[in-house]
Design a protein that fits this description.
By secondary structure, the protein is α+β, with helices and mostly antiparallel strands. It has one domain. The protein has helices spanning 22-32, 63-75, and strands at 2-7, 10-18, 35-42, 47-52, 78-86. The protein has a five-stranded antiparallel β-sheet with strand order 1-2-5-3-4, covered by helices on one side. Strand 1 (2-7) and strand 2 (10-18) form a beta hairpin. Helix 1 packs antiparallel against helix 2. The longest helix is centred in the C-terminal third of the chain and has 13 residues, at 63-75.
């Protein structure tokens, strides 16, 4: 499920997913290229991890991020992912 909001020059989307889908969804979002930040929250809105993507990171630099996301996915059953995108 996805929800979209526009705020100035950026747009946010929110996805509700299960823990087993978390790593795959984060990988998919990172490869989109126009993402500024990804925020992983639990169902109650508590933020577990914020991933800023304005650094220009590539390849192996994301390995620690995927490890952290995998560890979080093992702890919680359902997540909300908030994605900030740049307006084109």
């Amino acid at each position: 499920m996805s929800e979209e909001k526009k705020e100035g020059a950026k747009r946010t989307e929110e996805f509700k997913i299960s823990g087993s889908e978390l790593v795959d969804k984060i990988k998919e979002l990172i490869h989109q290229g126009n993402i500024r930040r990804i925020i992983i929250k639990n169902e109650e809105g508590k933020t577990y991890l914020e991933i800023p993507l304005t650094w220009g990171l590539v390849g192996a630099a994301f390995m620690p991020v995927f490890a952290a996301v995998g560890a979080i996915a093992a702890l919680v059953a359902k997540f909300n992912i908030v994605v900030e995108k740049e307006e084109e």
